[in-house]
Amino acid sequence: LASQYAIYKGAFRQAKIELCESLLEAFEKAAGKRIIKRKKETLNIGKKVFIITNAGGAGVLLSDYLSKKGYDILEKPMDILGTASAKDYLSALNSAKEKSCDSLIVILTPQSMTQIKETAESLVSFQKSIKKKIVALFLGGDKMNESNIIFKKSEIPNFNTLEDARDSLEFWQH
To answer: N or C terminus of the chain with fewer C-beta within 10 Å?
Structure first.
C-alpha cells in the first residue's frame, strides 16, 4: 500500500498536481484561504510517541505524518476499537504507562456509545499520575464541546481535527 501511494505521489508531482493531506486542506487550497480558524500553539511532545485510538485510520494517518517528520513512533497505534468506553481508554493508558515514550497521543472519534466527557475526565485524572505528556485529539466538532472545556481547565493540549494537531506539530522542532 505504501509503495502504491509513493507511485501516485510521483505521478502527481510529474503532472504538477498538488497533493493534499486532507479534504479540508484541498478545500482551503481551492478557496485560497483557511476555512477553519486553527489554534496557534506549538506543541512539544518530545521525540518518542505512543498513540492510542478508537479509530484505526486516524491513528495510522497521524502515525505516518509523525514518522515523516522524524518522530519515533513506538509500535503501531493501539487501536481499542470504536466501541471503546472511558474504562477501555484508562486500561490502554495504564498499559502504555511503562512504555519508554515522551508522550501519549489519545485519539477519540465519537460513536453512538462513546463516553466523551468521561473519557476526557479519565485522561485528566491519569495525567496527574505520570510524567509523560498527554495530547488529546478528540475529533468530532460540536460533540466535543464538553471535553474541550475539561481539557482547557487541565494541562492537556486538545485538538478537534488532525489538521490542528499537525499544524501545531509542524512548528515544533524536536
So the answer is: N
